[in-house]
Amino acid sequence: MIALAPETIHTDRLILIPLRVEHADEMLTVLSDPGLHLFTGGTPDTARDLRARYARWVAGSSRPGESWCNWVVQLRDGACLTGYVQATVTVDEHGAAAEIAWVTGTPWQGRGIATEAARGLVAWLRTHAVDTVVAHIHPDHGASTAVAAAAGLTPTGQWHDGEIEWQLTIS
What distance in Å separates the CA atoms of residue 26 and residue 5, rounded to the nearest whole number? Predict the structure, then answer.
């Protein structure tokens, strides 16, 4: 069984930095727009709730064969955080699979940041013996479907909690 831990990932314009609880302070502003929850539900976290969530994420999964890998996305030239990407990697007798997600703060949307971050994440997963990459995307979320397609995932026709499953099989 492999256990993965996030490592720093560099792309052309971005640095994906392994999440630390201390990132919550800056990310609170990045994630403050209620519009970010349009397709996922909920409301922006309070500072206390976000720090608690990040502490759980950093501590990792208690399930054997499951790794939580979370990164904040930083612009190289602006040195500011713009969002996050994450992968929950599970390993069983069929191999390793990763469920991925991404969020880009509203001020940075429409610049290709989510696409570049997702591509960087998928490239990293390829180097870590992951066989399958999956994302679940609301059918009306055009921006996320574009990100998934650009990262090499395709819709499977399967539904999960009102979202369409997208998948990439890595050979």
Answer: 22
Residue 97: what residue type? Answer: A
Nearest to 11 by CA among 171, 166, 150: 150
Strands 163-169 and 132-137 come out as: antiparallel
Q: What is the pLDDT of residues 38-54, one digit of tens each?
A: 888 889 999 999 999 99
Classify residue 153 as left (phi > 0), alpha (psi -120 to 50) or beta: beta
d(CA 54, CA 64): 20
pTM metric for this prediction: 0.95
